[in-house]
């Protein structure tokens, strides 16, 4: 990342980190060119927003990069790809090659997906002429949600909803969900 500008790493609680970039261009390049993996661990990256929780307890949804293949040519626009990607979750941004149309074999889109998602490998999209086409999906990383409360990267030891052996529920609850970053000036976000 340093090739795009300086970055400071600030450690937080519970395996969270804050990356502070010298400039917004470097930050945007890191966000757009993901996903990033460090020693086999997938980094979930978000733009910081005021009031944002740095706790991993709120991982009921996370941004995941997907490749969408067999997208009809008439849907290869910003609004068309948003329509196609919205079947999986909330579209956040596209990579540069998808945005500029320099690669038409697949669209690479970052999508906010819930832990309760089915992580489809294909789904049908209705074209303008009312016919259906199968869109194929490949995930850069496919997380496994904890089955009780549907939170990513979570175990029964951390779950606030799991019932203890003595029959009482743990106290506390999940914090608010992550926020989507919508930077309209960068040209990649919806």
From TrEMBL:
Signal peptide: none
Residue ranges of every copy of the DUF4283 domain listed in the record: 1-54
Name assigned to this protein: DUF4283 domain-containing protein
Organism of this sequence: Cephalotus follicularis
């Amino acid at each position: 990342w340093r090739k795009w500008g300086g970055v400071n790493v600030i450690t937080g609680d519970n395996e969270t980190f804050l990356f502070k970039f010298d400039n917004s261009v470097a930050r945007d390049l890191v966000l757009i060119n993901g996903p990033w993996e460090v020693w086999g661990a997938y980094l979930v990256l978000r733009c910081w927003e005021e009031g944002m929780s740095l706790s991993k307890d709120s991982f009921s949804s996370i941004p995941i990069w997907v490749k969408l293949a067999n997208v009809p040519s008439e849907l290869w626009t910003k609004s068309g790809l948003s329509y196609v990607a919205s079947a999986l979750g909330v579209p956040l941004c596209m990579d540069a090659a998808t945005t500029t149309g320099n690669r038409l074999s697949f669209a690479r889109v970052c999508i906010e997906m819930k832990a309760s998602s089915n992580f489809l490998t294909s789904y049908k999209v209705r074209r303008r002429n009312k016919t259906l086409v199968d869109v194929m999906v490949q995930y850069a990383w496919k997380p496994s949600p904890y089955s009780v409360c549907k939170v990513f990267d979570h175990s029964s030891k951390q779950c606030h909803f799991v019932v203890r052996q003595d029959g009482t529920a743990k106290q506390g609850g999940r914090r608010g969900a992550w926020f989507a970053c919508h930077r309209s000036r960068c040209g990649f976000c919806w």
